[in-house]
Design brief:
The structure holds three protein chains of three kinds. By secondary structure, chain A is an all-alpha fold. In chain A, 78% of the residues lie in helices and 0% in strands. By secondary structure, chain B is α/β, with parallel strands linked by helices. Chain B has two domains: 106-258, Nitrogenase molybdenum iron protein domain (Rossmann fold); 282-456, Rossmann fold (3-Layer(aba) Sandwich). In chain B, helix 2 runs antiparallel to helix 3 and helix 14 (399-410) runs antiparallel to helix 15 (417-430). The radius of gyration of chain B is 25 Å and the shape is globular. Chain C is mainly alpha-helical. In chain C, helix 4 packs antiparallel against helix 5 (135-160), helix 8 (214-230) packs antiparallel against helix 11 and helix 12 crosses helix 13. The chains are: A mainly alpha, B alpha/beta, C mainly alpha. Chains in contact: A-B, A-C, B-C.
């Protein structure tokens, strides 16, 4: 009798957990759709939610309006200013969350995030060299020069880390330390550049550093989408190995995983995913750190589920944050993410439960 | 005919008087008593094609010149602004256009303004402008003084931009679009809603977007420029931070709105400025005073920045001309932060330090404000020999008034109290922002003496 | 027996060499205080600067302008640099011992972000803890008070929940994130001039140190450092771990909190005047350790001397770089980053192989 109960409750618990995973996923996706509508409505005051969806649908269908009428402006505004921003939020949220989950599994450290290897300061350095000195790699000025610079800058620290790890094998902790040292170096250069420039450029650079979706246009989207899609497909294929890695380097090796090579490959993938987002939006923080954590608390640590669900949750959080950022006070989205993310981080540290990735 | 003796004497006397008068006029009029002082370059002009004689208005004189060119009596090359419709040739179409302008009828005029790099560019504007939108805190004041309030659909400015001074605009029916210093998505959305609402109610949307050239915001996103281009709304960038640009901008805006206020303000300002110039006409090059400019309290203006050029219009000598080391260090058009009290220590033989600040119109006893403003960045200057020659100039005042104050502080013997008061009266009465306010309320300059007096009070 | 004698001899010679280094650092620090008087934007040669100093001390001022710049502008700055550098380095040593973590530094407890928030509140929104103050005084007071809030928070939390050193560090980082998120919001919505001032404040500069505020700085740093140095034995023991320390009779929780509060007070005092100058607290102790060894009896004064020398030299370099000088924080971070990397590589070579 007790045996039956036991096996019943086990089955029940399994169903319960699977339902939970599905629930989180569905809630995130619905949440994104709702916020998309809300976004368009709040952005453009004169239309209702239904009208906003209708305008988006009509545009896809190819309907055109009389110039300078309400509908024409609404269509133009939603399509050129709001839609790219929303799409970017969805893609960036997914990409950064996936990169975060990947880093946390790779470094076996629940406090790792995509910027741990110095990507954020490298990208900042590239962008700010373009902004302050006007020196760009492709010799174009303005936005596109800054984007290319930021991408190249983001890849430099990763390149250095990989070079060092080829000379001597690095443990995850050592990797992060090297990344931290590199980020100190790059941020000292950034500080120098910002100190010698004038106040307006300083504020623009600071806003870029905080992370903003204000400057996204349609031409930025294709690269972000392609890299995110390819990168996350790649990560999904590797979830089994990531699970194995969580047992520790030594154990993983005995289970047949070439730990060093795997780590290098994953680092490169993660770097490309992160760099391609960060060069357009600036270094939006907390997403890669907090989203996988929350997901792990809800659905457990199996990377097969953690990665895709944290992508959905990440998109939802970023779209919501951007909505708040734009409607409430027109601040860059990075500020909203900090304000939301830092208390969550604080509480996570305070209420560490034994089991899911404790730190101490 | 037979003239008797009396008539001959009468004619002779008249002739002598006429000749004498002519002689006196010739001798005096030619006596351009300007000393050999060097001044900044400037010109006052209505920057619209069709203003063939390049004066302050488009009128019959311009028609005559165009007619002369059409008839072949004058060459088009001598009158670059004669081609009113900018189609490449000066012909009867230009005459028709200028006629329409003079009569105030609807037409399209070609306006010279700036692009974001500061180069001249020509924009087509629907004349007369009925739904203007000014953008930028420096632009608001000039726009009001040009008479733009009655032709304004909305304005973009920060919430707290000088409510006293801009009261005429803030209390009008124009839609307030609140933004920060940079353009925001919400602000842009309000702008385009305004355009749509105007089209629906009146058939004519926003027809001119006046932008202060020192604002960098529109360069943040090409989307905004694309929107303006697709809707056919011209972005008219004007250098309003410069005092001469202030007058020219008011003239242009007044013209485009077909409102006399702009012309009145501009011509009175020019007349007032002429008084200052006359007073300074005896200035010798050796007596020119050197100066360094500062902005935002502790940022040294670089050599070619707008603020650094301002005192040179009234005979000031920028310090970089007399000191090569300073010239090399401060090359550029922007500004550099002072690191500490030693920054200007090698250059404290400059005879004046002009600091730009921003103060709304003050009422009553504002000694505390004076003390607070003067002391705010005093620590950067307290070791300098010329610290008592530091003067705060209130940048939001009309340009000619600023110039007059700068001139009277530099050369008090040439530009004395009376001239200063007269200039202030002329300009303030013709303006809207300062009309009815006294010189003390405008708080144009805070000198060391003002500071000491305020402390003593 | 011969081995023992040999060993004792070698021990003594190492100890002598280490003390020698400590004294060298001290001499370098003192001499650079004087040498730095000759550097700066104001044109004056080393000889003239030295003369001006002597003249002032003997009461016989020859050139008033030289005297003004050398005595009133440069000397307090140099002395301030010495004390700030010494204080931050001592703080770094203490933190590293307390947290048993070579990456700990005085700012780990969130002092820097608290101070920055206080400064930003004063510079951007004009809010001041003591309403009567304004301008620079308000910034200093705000920064001091707000920099102690994270420490207070962590102390309160540690009453209710037992915190290991790692936990304290993580909590410090979390509090830092919270404070800096509020600061970020204020920075992006501010006028660009106020925002630029706030940013320059954070980078860290010694240009605001004058004879008026130098006494506070000196007294604070000396008093707190004296207290910390008096505990040198206990700090030595703390580094080997909590269990070990407890068996040797130290009340680790109380001692840790006590020292943390003292270090935070000192850092708060330093930071309110100069802004957050980085790296001295992190890298200084490590480099000092390479020359002077890990025993706190020598390391604490040795690190203090090294920190002082390092910051004075950095400030001297800062005074002459750029167009009209740079804030010293830029120089210390430019030097500190590569130094940190170098230390990592050198120290952990055996670990990595």
């Amino acid at each position: 009798m007790s045996e039956n109960l036991h096996s019943d409750s086990l089955v029940e618990r399994y169903h319960h957990l699977t339902m939970r995973k599905l629930l989180v996923l569905v809630v995130s996706v619905i949440g994104v759709i709702i916020v998309v509508g809300l976004f368009s409505v709040s952005a453009y005051d004169n239309i209702s939610l239904m009208e906003a969806y209708r305008i988006i649908w009509d545009h896809i269908m190819g309907v055109e309006y009389e110039p300078r009428t309400t509908e024409w402006w609404a269509d133009r505004f939603i399509w050129n200013t709001v839609m790219p921003r929303i799409v970017a939020a969805i893609v960036a949220g997914a990409s950064l969350a996936a990169a975060g989950a990947l880093m946390q599994a790779l470094m076996n450290n629940p406090l790792a995030d995509p910027y741990s290897t110095g990507i954020s300061s490298g990208a900042c350095f590239g962008a700010i060299v373009a902004l302050v000195l006007g020196l760009t790699i492709t010799s174009t000025s303005g936005q596109s020069g800054m984007i290319v610079n930021a991408f190249v800058g983001a890849m430099i620290p990763v390149g250095v880390v990989i070079l060092i790890s080829k000379r001597m094998p690095l443990s995850p902790a050592a990797l992060i330390l090297v990344g931290t040292a590199l980020s100190y170096f790059f941020s000292s250069m950034v500080t120098y550049l910002l100190v010698i420039t004038d106040a307006d450029t300083l504020q623009n650079a600071y806003i870029w550093q905080v992370g903003t979706l204000d400057t996204i246009v349609w031409s930025s989207i294709p690269m972000m989408v392609v890299v995110t899609a390819v990168g996350s497909a790649f990560v999904m294929l590797l979830t089994r190995q990531l699970n194995v890695l969580s047992l520790g380097d030594a154990n993983a090796k005995t289970l047949g995983l070439d730990v060093e090579k795997f780590r290098v490959v994953c680092l490169i993938v993660m770097a490309i995913m992160t760099a391609s987002i960060v060069c357009f939006t600036g270094t939006i923080g907390f997403l890669g750190l907090v989203a996988p954590h929350l997901v792990r608390i809800l659905v457990g640590s199996d990377n097969k589920f953690v990665v895709p669900i944290s992508m959905a949750v990440g998109s939802f959080i970023l779209v919501l944050a951007d909505y708040i950022a734009m409607t409430i006070s027109d601040v860059p989205v990075g500020v909203v993410m900090s304000i939301i993310g830092s208390p969550i981080f604080f509480l996570l540290i305070l209420w560490q439960k034994k089991g899911y990735g404790t730190v101490y | 005919m037979d003239l008797n003796k009396n008539q001959i004497i009468a004619i002779g006397v008249v002739a002598i008087i006429i000749v004498a008068a002519a002689a006196i006029l010739v001798l005096n009029g030619d006596d351009d008593k300007k000393g050999d002082a060097e001044y900044g370059q400037y010109s006052f002009r209505l920057d619209v094609y069709g203003n063939a004689n390049e004066d302050l208005v488009i009128d019959d004189k311009d028609l005559e010149i165009i007619q002369d060119i059409v008839d072949g009596k004058a060459t088009a090359g001598d009158y670059p602004l004669a081609d009113a419709d900018k189609n490449g040739a000066v012909d009867s179409k230009d005459k028709d256009l200028v006629n329409k302008i003079i009569k105030g009828q609807d037409c399209t005029v070609q306006v010279i303004c700036l692009d974001e790099n500061g180069n001249d560019v020509v924009k087509a504007v629907e004349f007369p402008v009925k739904n203007a939108v000014p953008y930028g805190s420096n632009m608001t004041g000039v726009f009001i003084n040009a008479g733009g309030v009655d032709h304004c659909a909305g304005y973009m400015s920060k919430k707290t931009s000088y409510p006293e001074m801009n009261s005429e605009l803030f209390n009008s029916d124009a839609v307030a679009i609140e933004i920060s210093r940079q353009m925001t998505t919400a602000g842009w959305e309000q702008f385009i809603s305004l355009d749509a609402a105007l089209i629906e109610s009146t058939g004519k949307g926003v027809d001119a977007f006046f932008v202060d050239h020192s604002v960098t915001a529109l360069s943040k996103s090409s989307v905004y420029r694309d929107d303006l281009a697709a809707a056919g709304i011209p972005e008219i960038r004007l250098a309003v931070a410069d005092p001469i640009g202030d007058v020219n901008a008011a003239l242009l805006i007044g013209f485009l709105c077909d409102d006399d206020q702009g012309y009145n303000y501009a011509s009175e300002s020019i007349r007032a400025f002429a008084l200052v110039e006359d007073a300074l006409s005896g200035l010798d090059k050796d007596d020119q005073k050197t100066y360094i400019c500062e902005t935002m309290g502790c940022y040294v203006c670089q050599n070619d920045s707008t603020f650094n050029t301002m005192p040179s219009y009234v005979g000031g000598m920028p310090y970089y001309i007399v000191n090569d080391e300073f010239a090399a260090l401060y090359e550029g058009t922007s500004s550099v932060k002072m690191e500490g009290p030693e920054t200007l220590s090698n250059f404290d033989d400059a005879e004046f330090i002009w600091c730009s600040n921003n103060l709304d119109i003050q009422t009553g006893d504002y000694s505390n404000t004076i003390i607070a403003e003067y002391e705010e960045y005093a620590s950067y200057y307290e070791t300098l020999d010329n610290r008592e020659q530091r003067v705060l100039i209130n940048a939001i005042n009309p340009g000619i008034i600023k110039l007059a104050f700068v001139a009277s502080i530099m050369y008090p013997d040439l530009v004395d109290e009376d001239i200063l008061q007269e200039v202030f009266d002329i300009v303030s009465e013709s303006s809207i922002t300062l009309d009815g306010h006294t010189m003390s309320e405008a708080c144009v300059a805070i000198t060391y003496e003002d500071y000491v007096n305020a402390k003593g009070a | 027996m011969a081995l023992l004698v040999d060993f004792i001899e070698r021990y003594h010679s190492i100890a002598k060499r280490r003390s020698f280094f400590a004294i060298v650092f001290f001499i370098v620090a003192i001499s650079f205080v004087v040498i730095s008087l000759g550097f700066g934007t104001y044109k004056i040669s080393m000889g003239e600067a030295f003369d001006a100093l002597i003249n002032h001390l003997t009461g016989n001022v020859v050139n008033a302008k030289d005297d003004l710049y050398v005595w009133d502008v440069r000397l307090p700055r140099a002395i301030g640099a010495a004390f700030v550098g010494a204080g931050l380095a001592i703080g770094g040593v203490v933190m590293q011992n307390l947290m048993q973590n070579p990456l700990a530094e005085p700012y780990t407890m969130g002092v820097s972000s608290g101070a920055f928030l206080g400064a930003v509140l004063s510079m951007i929104s004009g809010f001041s803890i003591i309403p009567a103050l304004s301008g620079d005084y308000a910034v200093v007071c705000n920064a001091f008070v707000f920099s102690l809030i994270p420490v207070a928070l962590i102390t309160v939390v540690s009453r209710f929940k037992k915190l290991s050193p790692t936990a304290i560090i993580l909590l410090g980082i979390a509090v830092m994130y919270v404070f800096s998120s509020i600061t970020q919001y204020m920075m992006v919505t501010a006028e660009s001039e106020s925002m630029a001032s706030a940013y320059h404040w954070r980078v860290g500069s010694l240009s605001k140190v004058t004879w008026d505020n130098l006494p506070f700085l000196v007294v604070f740093v000396t008093a707190t450092s004296a207290v910390l140095c008096a505990c040198y034995k206990k700090l030595d023991i703390m580094y080997s771990g909590d269990r070990c320390a407890q068996t040797l009779g130290i009340n680790t929780t109380f001692f840790r909190m006590f020292c943390l509060i003292i270090v935070s007070l000192m850092t708060a005092a330093v930071v309110s005047f100069t802004g957050t100058i980085g790296f001295i607290g992190l890298v200084g102790p490590h480099i000092a350790r390479m020359f002077v060894g890990s025993k706190n009896k020598l390391l604490l004064p040795g690190a203090a001397a090294f920190g002082a020398a390092f910051l004075i030299i950095a400030d001297t370099v800062a005074k002459v770089s750029g167009i009209n000088g740079l804030p010293v924080g830029v120089i210390s971070s430019m030097v500190g980053g590569p130094l940190f990397l170098y230390i990592l590589i050198k120290k952990n070579k055996k670990v990595w192989n």
